[in-house]
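Q: Now give one record:
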Amino acid sequence: MGKIKFYGTMWCSDCHRSKDFLDSHKIDYDYTDVDENQELARYITKINNGLQRVPTLIFPDGSILVEPTNQQLADKLGIS
C-alpha cells in the first residue's frame, strides 16, 4: 500500500489536527505545504473545484478527503 498524499499549509489548524491524528496512529503519509509549491497549490485548487481547500488528503486507492474530521479519517482508515 502506498502513502497518503497530504496537502496542507503551516497556518491551517485543521491541517495540524489531521497530522496529529495520523501521527498518533502511526499512519505513513507524504506532506506537502502548498504555500511552498505553487504547482501543487494549483493542483489542489483544480481538484477542489476552484478552491484551495486544505487539508486535502489523497489515498493510495485514489479517494480524496478534504478538510476531514478525525472521525472521517478513522472511518477511512478502519480505525475504531
